[in-house]
Each structure stands twice: as structure tokens, then as C-alpha cells.
């Protein structure tokens, strides 16, 4: 027997079938009928209602019997329970989820609870939710509550470039920020792992980051440039593959924990998932800089700032709509982000709510000299006493 130990690990790596390209829906929609005959079709946004109607009509032309179901909120228990009852009463044998990340999460979680297959049709590249075996659950007001691990990735994902091109450019910028977090989080939580698959996932995240930094601005300027397809698929597909290969031990860290905390404030609900995660990357790098003492993190943060600004992504609290947030509200963000079991505790150093508050406020700062770091440490102590 070999004299080393590798922990057993279960990976839901990818959807069973992936169809991608300019006319992916027309190519792949016939596969829906081989998976289910009476799917419940989940959607939400008024902006995509016509597109979803066309998808629904296509399914009917395939002689399927789809049932339309609209979400009233983000992926939340109120909607999930209502749709669960509809699906049971109509004897649906599958779920088709067409929309952005929260719609896709709701569809996957609904299928998981019903024990039926799920087909995802992303209508933006704002997240990799159409790929993964994970769903984030929110309150009806939009505050993050918890995430749920699913038994499998979707049976089929159809990533139609034509559908995704209709989404606002802001959604692609948000997807870029969310995908960038794969590197910044996995490299610090899992970069020293001896597990081969995790090592490979971390390196994939690095390549993903480099591609986004190179192609991101071009993709946002010109949808007809080949960079657009590379970036859109990187955000919606490759980012999910990184998480699938890395598994649960290739962990998210502070960037997503900060996102979860920010969702607790009503004033931040107009911001997209990736926009909050992108700011969370800056906060995480600030934590590494002022608490972890990693000077390279400060350099990485200062290099990332102009890139995020070029993509019109938030780089300070004002950009997040929190210019007038009270100290009590920011403390609420930090307490939630630092709660027991939070991803922030995967950092290689302890983080208190007070330390996070300082980083949250100062993530967009440019300067970080040795004297400033000394002052930051003193502010960290002062803020810790406040909280």
C-alpha cells in the first residue's frame, strides 16, 4: 500500500452535455426531449420574457408539454416551495431554467429537490451558475442566506451566444469579476494543496485570470470581436469547470464572503453578484496586505484597480451604492461575513469583524507605504474594539 494519504473526495465536475456556440439552442433543443417530456420552465426577468417565450414555443413545437413558472424573487424558499408544488401537481419530469445566475440556481435546486433532471439555458454570462452543482439561497428581500450542494451538475447546458449577446454589457463585466475571483480565492486557500486535481484547478484559475485580463476590455467594447466569445465562455463555462475539478476543497474565501455580507444591506441590492464579488476581491487583497503582511497582495490590488475601473466595476463603497451607509450597517456586513462557518475563515490568518471593516472601507485605496501599514494596523485595533 502507498504510504501517503489523499482524502476521499466527491466531484460533480461538469454537465453531462455542453452545447455552445452562436446557434447552440437550435442545435441542442432537440436533446431536451430525450431528457424529459413535461418540463417546468423557470424564469423571471421582464427583460428576457420574449426570449423565454420563444424558447417555450420551441419546446412546444418539439411536441413537449412545458409548464411556465415565473419566479417572484431571487432563488429563495418562498418561490422554491411554490414551484415545487406546481411541478408535483403537473407531474413535471424535468426543469428547464432560462435566465441569469439566480434563476439558474433556482432551477437546479428545484430539480434537485424533485429528483428530476435539469437543463440550464444561460441568458447572460454573469456567473457560472448554469454549470455548477451548487445553489445560493436568498431571502425574499435578496439577502444571502446559505448555499446548498446538489447531487449533480445539470444534465444539459445550452450556452447560445446569440442569447447571451442580448444581455446588457454590465452582466458580462460582472461575470468577469466573478470569474477572476476563482484565482484570487483558490490560490490562497488551495495553492499549497498536494492534491493533483486541486493543483490543476488552481492553475486553470490562473490561466482563466490571465485570459480575462487580456481579453476583457476588448470583449466589452466589441461583441463581434473573437475576444467576446472567449470571455463569455470563460465566465459561464470555464469558471464552473475550475470549481468542478477543484471540488469542495478548492475553496472560495473572502471575496464571496464579502459578497454575502453586502447582500444584507438593502442599499446594495441593485448591484449584480459579480460586482459585489469583484469588490470582495479588493477587500480580500487588502486583508492579505494589512493583516497577513503580504506586500505582493498590495501590489496585486493596485494593479487590479484600474482594470476593474475600466470595466466600470465598483472599486469603493460609493460605487456600490453605500456612500451613505452608517457604521452600524457596515458592521452588519462584517459580522455576517465573519460568522461561524463563513468562507472568510479559509484565509491562512484569522480575520475579525473589526479587521474586515477596515479592509471593507479602504479596499479602493491606492497607497500602502510601510508607515501607512503601521497606521492601518492601529486602525484595525481601534475598529476591533468598536465591534
- What overall geometry do the principal axes of the alpha carbons give? globular
Q: Please give the count of helices.
A: 15
Name the CATH class of the largest domain.
Mainly Alpha
Order of adjacent strands in the largest pleated sheet: 1-8-5-4-2-3
Task: Quote the beta fraction.
Answer: 5-15%
Characterization of the model:
This protein is of the alpha/beta class. The C terminus is likely disordered. 53% of the residues lie in helices and 11% in strands. 51% of the residues are buried. The strands form two sheets. It has a six-stranded parallel beta sheet, sandwiched between helices. The chain contains 15 helices and eight strands. It has two domains: 151 residues, Rossmann fold; 210 residues, Dehydroquinate synthase-like, alpha domain (Up-down Bundle).
Task: Give a short synopsis of this structure.
With 387 residues, the protein is α/β, with parallel strands linked by helices.
Brief descriptors of the model:
8 strands, Dehydroquinate synthase-like, alpha domain, 387 residues, disordered C terminus, 53% helix, alpha/beta, two-stranded antiparallel sheet, 2 domains, Rossmann fold
Provide the fold topology.
Blueprint: E1 17-21, H1 24-28, H2 32-35, E2 39-43, H3 49-61, E3 67-70, H4 77-89, E4 94-99, H5 101-114, E5 118-122, E6 134-138, E7 144-149, E8 156-160, H6 161-165, H7 169-190, H8 196-221, H9 226-246, H10 254-262, H11 273-290, H12 295-310, H13 327-337, H14 353-362, H15 370-386
Parallel strand pairs: 1-8, 2-3, 2-4, 4-5, 5-8
Antiparallel strand pairs: 6-7
